[in-house]
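As agreed, record copied across for absentees:
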Amino acid sequence: MRIEITSKQMTITDTMRAKVEERFEKLEKLQTSLINPHFIITKEPKGMKIEGTIGVPNGKVFAHAEHDDLYVAINQLFQKIERQLNKHNHKDEANRAKNNGKDLCRNGEISGEPIEEPEVEIESDAEIKLNKEFAA
C-alpha cells in the first residue's frame, strides 16, 4: 500500500519513513481496509508534531501527537490510531449486544418462550348507552 508522508520545514529521512511504515504494517493486521494513509510531520517551536489521516469504510480516522522526540511522537500517534480502529471495528458487535433483548420484548417473548395472554371473557349481552347533553 502506498503511504503518503509529507513534511513541513524539514526533510524526511529514510529512518523516519521506515519507522512510519513499520508502525503502519502493524495497523494492517487489524483486518480493516485502510484507504489513503497520509501523515504530515511538522517541526514546531515546542518540538515535533505528526498528524495522521487514514480512510476506513464509512469514515476517517484522524490523530495527532506532539513530542520533543519524533520517534516517540510517531509511537503515540499510532497508539491513538490503533485505539480508534479497534473502536471502529468492534462498534457493530457492541450495538448488536446492546440491542439483543429488545426484539424479544417486542415479540412478547422472554428467554425464547412466548408469554401466554390471560383469557378475558367478554359479555355479549352488554349494552352501551351514550348520553350527550348540549347546553342551549
The first helix runs from residue 14 to 28.
